Amino acid sequence: MWVFGYGSLIWKVDFPFEEKRIGYIKGFSRRFWQGSTDHRGVPGKPGRVVTLVEDPEGCVWGVAYKLPTGREQEVKRYLDHREKGGYQVITVTFHPRPPLTPPPSQALLYIGSQDNPDYLGPAPLEQIANQIANATGPSGRNTEYLFQLADALRTLLPEDSDTHLFSLETLVRERVKTGE
């Protein structure tokens, strides 16, 4: 069983796995449109974390993890709990980054759909940046989530030019620097 990570599962790997592969899925774009009241915000003042939105031309880079043989259900239960804040599980086709030769394979994906109670949806980037700059929850500051994800993508996936992510990073870093 494989699980595809496109947000904190890229940089906060706190679960066992047998193998990991860098690659992508098609038909989606990564957006900071999911509210977080359990990790990066609190009820009444949610943080923003990533989810995927359908996009016929989209391609989202990330990391797929093969869950340990014989422990797949145990690790999946842990991930189900970790990703409980409005995420559901779907199956997608994962494409390993060339020059890996494995063919595309099926992977589980945690996605915050538009009908979940924590979904915040689109907003102007300035508004999203303000929300991220000012939110903190049980897992820490929302800025940490954004900066860790941006740093991880630059390191692992220099080919990923996620303009939504990197534009938000720039706006939030400006706010942190000026104390807004």
Report on this model:
The mean pLDDT is 93. The chain has helices spanning 8-11, 72-82, 125-134, 142-156, 163-178; strands at 2-5, 19-36, 47-66, 87-96, 105-112, 136-137, 140-141. It is built from five helices and seven strands, in the order βαββαββαββαα. Helix content is 31%, strand content 36%. The longest helix is centred in the C-terminal third of the chain and has 16 residues, at 163-178. A hairpin with a 2-residue loop joins strand 6 and strand 7 (140-141).
How many β-strand runs? 7
End-to-end separation: 44 Å
Helix content: 25-40%
What is the rounded Rg?
A: 16 Å
Oligomeric state of the chains in view: single chain
Count of DSSP-assigned helices: 5
- Write the element-wise H/E pattern from the N-terminal end onward: EHEEHEEHEEHH
Structural class: alpha+beta
Main sheet: strand order: 1-3-2-4-5
Approximate strand percentage = 35-45%
Principal-axes shape call: globular
Poorly predicted parts: none
The major pleated sheet works out as: 5 strands, mixed, barrel
Average pLDDT, rounded to a whole number, is 93
Task: Please name the defining characteristics of this protein.
5 helices, two-stranded antiparallel ribbon, single chain, globular, 36% strand, 180 residues, alpha+beta, 5-stranded mixed beta barrel
Helix-strand layout with pairing:
Layout: E1 2-5, H1 8-11, E2 19-36, E3 47-66, H2 72-82, E4 87-96, E5 105-112, H3 125-134, E6 136-137, E7 140-141, H4 142-156, H5 163-178
Parallel strand pairs: 1-5
Antiparallel strand pairs: 1-3, 2-3, 2-4, 4-5, 6-7
